[in-house]
Amino acid sequence: MSGLHIHLDPVGGIAGDMFVAALLDTWPDLEGQVTAAVRSAGLDPAVCLSIDGHSDGTLTGRRFHVEAPPAGKSHGHSHTHWSQIRSMLLDSALPDRVTTHAIGIFQELAQAEAQVHGEDVNDVVFHEVGNWDSIADIVAAAALIDALGAKTWSIGSLPIGRGTVKTAHGDLPVPAPATVLLLEGFDFRDDGRSGERVTPTGAAILRYLMPAPGIGALPRTLHGTGFGFGTKTFDGMSNVLRVLAFDTRPLAQEDTDTIAVLQFEIDDQTGEDLAVALEAIRGTEGVIDVSQSAVQGKKNRMMASIQVLAHAHAVDQVCEACFRQTTTLGIRTRIETRRILNRREVPAAHGRVKIANRPGGRTAKTDIDDVAEPGNDHRTRAALRAASEQEALGSDD
Q1: Which end of the chain has fewer CB atoms at under 10 Å, N or C?
Q2: What band does 1 get if pLDDT is binned at 50, 70 and 90?
């Protein structure tokens, strides 16, 4: 499924159980795999799972339901430290990649809760999310993310909801504070309906996946769809998360992926210090490229406009590096789809040559560092590059 693109359409909103149900409605053959994963996670054996067909009279789809153990049989999981859940997952029989996804989702939630309550992330205690059903939802979501191996994800605008929600901390406005932090950068809409439309679990899954906003302009072939129902009901609207499964078909010469774009401006850092800072950012894990340009800002000051391209999963650590290395007070982030020419690097007499498959044919380019020997002038460098590129193109036939 290397070309799989999954679009999430939050008609009624998104929660962990809706995410799982929608994906299983699209790929019902994964039901046994998901159930086995949840059973391997270390949950109480008395927890009951069901994946049922459901209809609200308008649409049909699935519901993913987790029933807590009967009173007196549970080991008490309503208030659980993040460290306990992490240890449970690490000690479980889950496959390594599923464990990584599950811990990654929980980590996003733990960081948001820590920020809201002003505490260390390792001291976070989950209340509602510490319940068996939320743990099962996240493990099931992790198992599906791993099994599907989607190349890219996208999402439509999220319903913001209205009113309050009852929590262990009292009544809180919706979206709840931790949910708001997790959904910074996502698009919202107000459809006039009340209630919690995006749960903390749903928000944590989205933050972990970092789907691109909107479906994008790339040509895609639709090959599946599914509906995951939530527990609430709304007048005049189905409370569903819809999944649209696409096969991305770029041109033969192209590939696609999803990247993060980070942008900010600097007007109070010396040029020599900023150069060092940008080099440090460039060396941060997850960074693809860093560029700067001169712009005119407030008070007619000349500023450096910085753009950082990074892998989508590394947004948080790259933002941290930017804040640590520069004087900026704010960073704009967005997720974009990138089209990339298929290319490969081959050795030649005078260094490495990158061959790219373009619509008009193959091109070759020698790395300048490989021909920039002391004493080589422009003509010599050009001749060496041409020889290497010709050799590479010939050997690649």
Answers
A1: C
A2: very low
pTM: 0.67
**Euclidean distance between CA atoms 81 and 85, whole angstroms:** 7
Backbone Cα Rg of the chain: 25
Residues near 262 by beta carbon (within 8 Å), at least 6 away in sequence: 307, 308, 309, 310, 315, 318, 319, 322, 331, 332, 333
For the beta sheet containing 4-9, the strands, ordered from the edge strand earlier in sequence to the opposite edge, are 48-55, 60-67, 220-229, 240-248, 4-9, 152-155, 212-213
How far apart CA 193 and CA 186 sit, in angstroms, is: 19
Q: How many whole angstroms separate alpha carbon 87 and alpha carbon 81?
A: 10
Among the listed residues 207, 101, 109, the one whose alpha carbon sits nearest the alpha carbon of residue 149: 101
Q: Alpha-carbon dihedral of residues 93, 98, 99, 103, nearest 10 degrees? A: -150
Sign of CA dihedral 335, 341, 342, 347: negative
Instruction: Read off the pLDDT of residues 146-194 as tens digits, 9 standing for 90 and up.
Output: 999 998 899 999 999 888 777 666 677 888 888 999 999 899 999 999 8
